[in-house]
Amino acid sequence: MEVIVFVKRVPSFEEEEVRIRQDGSTLDLSGIPFRMNDWDSYALEEAVRLVERFGGSVTAVTIGTDEDDEVLRRSIACGAKDGFLIREGAFVEPIRRAGLAKALIEKEGLRFDLILTGVQAEDDQFASFGGILAGLLKIPYAGMVVGIEEALGDSLTVRREIEGGMQERIRISLPCVLSIQTGINQPRYVSIMGIRRASRVERKVIEGGKILSAERSRLRLERFFYPEKKERAKMLEGDLLGVCQGILGILREKGVL
Amino acid sequence: MSYNLCFAEVRRGKFEEKNFDMLGLCSLLEGQTFVLLPKSEIEVKGVERIIEVDLREESFLSPLSLVVVFEEVRKRYGDPEFLLFPHSSFGMDVAPYMAGYFGFSFLSDLSSEREGLLLKPFFSEKALAGFQFEAPPPYVLTVRSGSFKGLARKEGMPEREQLRIAILEEKRSFVEYVSEETPDVDISKADFLLSIGRGVGSREEIPSYEILAQRLKATLSASRPVIDKMWLPKSRQVGISGRTVRPKVYFAMGISGSFQHIQGMKDAECIIAVNRDPNAPIFQYAHFGVVEDMHRVRDMLLELLGKG
Question: What topology is assigned to B3-163 in CATH?
Answer without folding.
Answer: Rossmann fold (3.40.50)
